[in-house]
Fold this protein.
Amino acid sequence: MIRGREQPVRPAPFRYLAPDSLEEALSLLCEYGEEAKILAGGQSLLPLMAFRLVRPAVLIDLRNIAELGRYRLEADRLTIGSMVTHRTIELDHRVTSRCDMLAEALDVLGHAAIRNVGTVGGSLAHADPTAEWLAVALALEARVMVTGPRGTRSVAAENFATGWMASCLAPDEILTEVRLDMPGPGTGSAFEEVARRHGDFAVVGAAAAVTVADEAIEGVRIALAGAASTPIRAPRAEALLAGSVPSAQDLEAAGEAAASETDPVADLHGSEDYKRQLARVLTRRAVARAYRRALARP
Ligand SMILES: Cc1cc2nc3c(=O)[nH]c(=O)nc-3n(C[C@H](O)[C@H](O)[C@H](O)COP(=O)(O)OP(=O)(O)OC[C@H]3O[C@@H](n4cnc5c(N)ncnc54)[C@H](O)[C@@H]3O)c2cc1C
């Protein structure tokens, strides 16, 4: 019985459709327009619907579209269909042994129960600025493939998130796959984050990929989650480190530069200053570990 101001925690009524092909899914999206929402793992969408923060009249479930549930590792290229779950990648040692950053990010992404159901494409499309996948995609300079009625386009990870929980996906487009290049010899990577409890979204996270030649940093990519309204790269910190055999002072300076590149949003998890401090420390730690790993992978 519902009493007083209590609200039912269940979604408003909706129609459920589960097309068998991408073409069919796209045509349903066109047919129902803004009334429809794509359903992937449902780990983010269904809670929003249960609280009636989102009320789609139609859910288009991608679960029957076989091609979206596949992934492949060919040479250095990892191509992940949007419906592949976090857990599938986490459990593939061929992948995680080649990319420490990805292994570490997946280890702290929610709990195993979430990772069993939540999908890579759903995480990217949801565009939460603290999501691990977006930061990893940025640091590995991934490309996101998007298909709609106007054809397929390849979006650089840095252009994918456009604002807080907003992406470049048009309402009639479907994210189909993400393409990442695995770090090669001479490159080490690492992921660091602080969350209030294990399995919670990060307050701030840092992903780093460092390439060395003769012990000096030849190239470095740093991406931060939770440090602005979208995940961001830290180009000033990257430029500071380029060419160095990084000393403790260099790493401090890079952390300082990364912190200065953030534009954090205060919330109940922390003030702007606290998040800047996390960006400073996590950048330093992630780069230091990635550098040590790069030296060990000639
Ligand atoms: C308790 C809990 C803890 C969590 N912790 C974390 C965490 O620490 N880090 C983290 O990153 N995530 C976390 N998540 C979220 C989880 O990773 C989700 O899997 C993810 O955010 C959404 O993936 P999904 O497959 O469940 O997508 P859904 O919830 O089904 O969809 C999410 C959104 O993306 C859209 N969408 C989905 N797929 C596509 C597609 N292929 N094309 C276009 N639009 C699409 C949907 O329409 C919807 O708007 C957590 C979730 C829960 C419930």
Summary: The first helix runs from residue 22 to 32. The radius of gyration is 20 Å.
